[in-house]
Amino acid sequence: MAGKKLQVFVSSTYLDMTEERQAAVQAILMAGHIPAGMELFASGDQTQLEVIKRWIRESDAFFLILGGRYGSVEPLSGKSYVQLEYEYANDLGKSCFTAVITDAGLNRKLTDLPPGTLPPSKLKTRLSKEPLQRPAGAQRKQASAAGAPPGPGDDTPRSCAA
Questions:
Q1: H-run or E-run covering 35
Q2: Which whole number is the average pLDDT over 17-40?
Q3: Where is the DUF4062 domain (predicted)?
Q4: Is the pLDDT reported for residue 141 higher than 90?
Q5: Segments forming the whole domain that contains residue 85
């Protein structure tokens, strides 16, 4: 089977991992294999999850790039598409490879921010120390979800593995 081209499904959140996805696609192509991922095809009449599952089934391997976001949530399961992709590939027994972007790597990505903007970690620190400015006459609302777990779309890194 030497020389067989493998199809590798690339999974990650999209906007925050654009450079990493491009690097993965380039590496797969340079190795003589075929990259597959949601940005490389359009969905027809099938649901997004059905299309994803078909492409994972048709792929020989699964490559997960795990950054700092949980990702878009599939409405029926309440799980991110990235987590569903990983679980499905794992259930199928696909060869799975993972690249986990460290906190230091994520912070380096924030160095190219426009002038005058703060990285999220510094902004969170600043906002936690400064009093909230409210318009005159505005009512103060009680925060009821102070102890609630983070919701989908926040910046808390999570593992896709159960």
A1: strand 34-36
A2: 91
A3: 7-89
A4: no
A5: 7-104
Please tell me which residue, 132 or 32, carries the higher pLDDT value: 32
State whether residue 158 is helix, strand or coil: coil
CA dist 5 and 115 (Å) reads 45
DSSP line for 55-122: HHHH-SEEEEEE-S---PBPTTT-SBHHHHHHHHHHHTT-EEEEEEPPHHHHHHHGGGPPTT---HHH
First to last CA, the chain: 34
Q: What is the pTM of this model?
A: 0.65
**11 sits in which H/E element:** strand 7-11
% helix, strand, coil for the chain, step of 5: 40, 15, 50
Domain CATH code at residue 82? 3.40.50.10140
- 141 belongs to a structural domain: no
Dist. CA 67–CA 71, nearest whole Å: 10
| pLDDT attached to residue 14 | 83
Structurally, how many domains does the chain consist of?
A: 1
Q: Do the Cβ atoms of 84 and 77 come closer than 8 Å?
A: yes
